[in-house]
Specification:
The complex is a heterodimer. By secondary structure, chain A is mainly α. Chain A has helices at residues 18-22, 31-42, 48-79, 81-87, 107-138, 141-156, 159-186, 201-226, 229-237, 242-271, 274-279, 297-304, 311-343; strands spanning 97-98, 103-104. Chain A has 3 domains: 8-42, no CATH class; 48-79; 84-343, Orthogonal Bundle (MetI-like fold). Chain A has 13 helices and 2 strands, in the order ααααββααααααααα. Chain A is flat, with a radius of gyration of 30 Å. Chain B has a single domain, classed as MetI-like (MetI-like fold). Classes of the chains: A mainly alpha, B mainly alpha.
Chain lengths: 351, 288
């Protein structure tokens, strides 16, 4: 600590960084000043206490992140205990969702979540990889930044606006043109039959596809950029065309990271709520046709949580939330491992 | 990156090459069409309905025309303010921890949990905050909505702060410490200030991400047809109103949903753009 000042004339106002403020301002001559300087350099003001306090505050805020996740899991398990106890594993193969009878089975929701997400990936994966290839390998330098900005802009649009657009623009488009056409040409597959509403599984899949494209495209772009330029040059020097270079030199090296990006997109699609709730039709049934309305795990929570009467009903909804949490946790962890194995942990991974 | 080949390339390979190029261009166009369509529709359908009444009045009873979303705009501002009060210090704090102190096992654990939190579906955050805040409080409230959105801001801000701090060269820290500046002061006034532009950008991204969130507000802020500035009462939010108006059967409410969506996206874009411009001019460089 500071030793007491011998000379009142040298007293300075207390500043936060004494050693800085003092530099160059003190009288340069005189025995007193020399002694003072000596004392100060040998006994610098201790910063142990403020440093310790700062470290504790910072540590606490870091621990809060951990605590929040633990609390979320704790609450989900606690609040779904009733339903876990009542239905056990049967919850996952029960088809009935009957709040009046107190009978809850999650199959229609699990089915709806899986089908809409896989439909989204089916549409989004080729488009995202195509965009990423275009941006990294083909695009003129001037356009590169603009196009990647526009693709990322898709990620900034709120979910509810996608839903709004889905209801009033996409659904009528599907109802008037796309679905009648699909029914006529591909009706024999059984996937495109039945009454045409516009709103339904197909609409949900398309909206989700648009929403996951920026996720997959940005990861794909990043892992493709991580492939060394030498690889490209080597393959080109062997006489490959541009496509062969991309296929053999770039995509093959980046494939694990691309799979990671796709799984990350899946994680986002599984948990997406508002846009899907607005366009999927919200009917808890398992239908083969993609025209039929469906229901997802996230949207049943959104629709019924505030109206759930009775503890068991609420508990069943929380259990769906718990399942959703665990599935997205596993999916995201897997995706991160894959992406990190390519980029060495430098890629910014956003879910 | 065009290949100039001396020998003749076979027809099949040429077709494959050109096909792949065409596919990539097509993919780029297909991805950009929805973006364009969404913005065009927002402008066309929204701009005619944004007027003084929409910006200053509260909703009319169902079925009546007129009214506005003024309470939703205020409510969104209120909820976002609470979210920022919670999310900014915790996010920046844990970012500092990860970059300056967390280069070991425990840091990795925090880093992993932050990523887990980032991937948790927003509706699940809503459930958790409902049972942690709303149930004990016995009220849907602006506060609980702010807590839900604040929690969602933390991981984004933490990872952005960490990334930006790691880009500050160690030599600067050593120079500061060498002058006798305490470590806490070095971290706040030297490292964090050097990284401030990037940290602010990260905060804005987190802010923009939660500004349009609807799902976690459904059972926390809940929505309200009337004015409310009390933190412990149900509160309207722009995104909630867009949602409930969009799924309502009334044409006039559909019109207002588009207007609300337009306001929402303008607010988000304006917030991000304002910070981008001011950080590039160095106005915010001083404050952290």
């Amino acid at each position: 600590m500071n030793s007491p000042e011998p000379l009142g004339a040298l007293q300075k106002p207390v500043v936060a960084v004494p050693s800085l403020a003092r530099a160059g301002r003190e009288p340069k001559t005189g025995v007193a000043a020399a002694v003072l300087r000596k004392i100060r350099t040998t006994h610098p003001p201790s910063s142990r206490i403020p440093d310790f306090a700062f470290g504790v505050i910072i540590l606490l805020s870091a621990i809060s992140v951990f605590a929040i996740v633990v609390l979320v899991v704790w609450e989900l398990i606690g609040k779904s205990r009733l339903s876990l106890h009542q239905f056990g594993i049967g919850f996952f193969y029960g088809h009935d969702w009957d709040p009046v009878e107190g009978n809850f089975g999650a199959v229609p929701f699990i089915y709806g979540t899986l089908v809409s997400s896989f439909l989204a990936l089916l549409l989004a994966v080729p488009a995202s990889i195509g965009v990423a290839v275009y941006i990294t390998e083909m695009c003129p330098q001037r356009l590169r930044a603009i196009i990647s900005f526009l693709v990322e802009l898709l990620a900034a649009i709120p979910s509810v606006i996608y839903g709004l657009w889905g209801i009033f623009v996409l659904a009528p488009l599907l109802r008037e043109y796309v679905e009648p056409f699909l029914a006529k040409t591909l009706g024999w597959t059984g996937l495109f039959t039945g009454p045409i509403y516009g709103l339904g599984m197909l609409a949900a899949g398309i909206i989700l596809a648009i929403m996951v494209v920026p996720v997959i495209a940005s990861i794909t772009r990043e892992v493709m950029t991580a492939v060394p330029q030498n690889q490209r040059e080597a393959v080109l020097a062997l006489g490959a065309t541009r496509w062969e270079m991309i296929r053999m030199g770039v995509l093959r090296n980046a494939r694990i990271g691309i799979v990671g990006g796709i799984i990350l997109g899946l994680g986002r699609a599984l948990g997406e709520t508002m846009a899907v709730t607005m366009v999927i039709g919200n009917r808890p049934e398992v239908a083969k046709s993609l025209f039929a309305p469906g229901y997802t795990m996230a949207s049943v929570i959104a629709n019924e949580f505030t109206e759930a009467t009775g503890d068991l009903y609420l508990s069943a909804l929380v259990e769906i939330g718990l399942v959703l949490f665990l599935v997205t946790l596993i999916v995201n962890a897997l995706a991160r491992l894959l992406v990190w194995s390519i980029t060495g942990g430098t890629a910014r991974v956003r879910a | 990156m065009s290949s100039s080949v001396a020998h003749e390339v076979s027809l099949g390979r040429r077709i494959a090459n050109q096909g792949a190029t065409a596919f990539a261009v097509l993919a780029a166009v297909l991805v950009l069409i929805p973006l364009l369509a969404i913005f065009v529709y927002l402008l066309i359908k929204g701009i005619g309905s944004v007027n003084l009444a929409f910006l200053t009045q509260t909703p009319k009873p169902p079925g009546e025309t007129g009214g506005g979303m003024a309470n939703g705009i205020i409510g969104t501002g209120l909820i976002l303010a609470i979210a920022s009060v919670i999310g900014l210090p915790l996010g920046i704090g844990s970012g500092i921890y990860l970059a300056e102190y967390g280069r070991h096992r425990f840091g990795d654990l925090i880093r992993f949990t932050a990523d887990v939190l980032n991937g948790v579906p927003s509706i699940v955050i809503g459930i958790a905050v409902y049972s942690l805040v709303v149930v004990p409080q016995k009220h849907f409230s602006a506060f609980s909505g702010g807590v839900a959105l604040g929690i969602m801001m933390i991981p984004t801000i933490a990872r952005a702060t960490e990334e930006m701090l790691l880009m500050v060269p160690n030599i600067i820290r050593e120079a500061a410490l060498g002058l006798g500046i305490p470590r806490w002061r070095t971290t706040l006034s030297i490292s964090l200030r050097t990284a401030s532009a990037g940290v602010i950008t990260g905060c804005m991204l987190a802010f923009a991400r939660v500004a349009g969130e609807t799902a976690p507000l459904l059972f926390t802020a809940f929505g309200n047809q009337f004015w409310n500035l009390k933190l412990n009462q149900p509160t309207a939010a722009l995104s909630l109103q867009v949602y409930s108006y969009a799924i309502s059967p009334y044409d006039d409410w559909h019109r207002q949903a588009w207007a609300g969506a337009l306001i929402l996206i303008v607010l988000i874009v304006a917030a991000v753009a304002a910070v981008r411009i001011s950080t590039s001019r160095g106005m915010l460089k001083g404050g952290t």
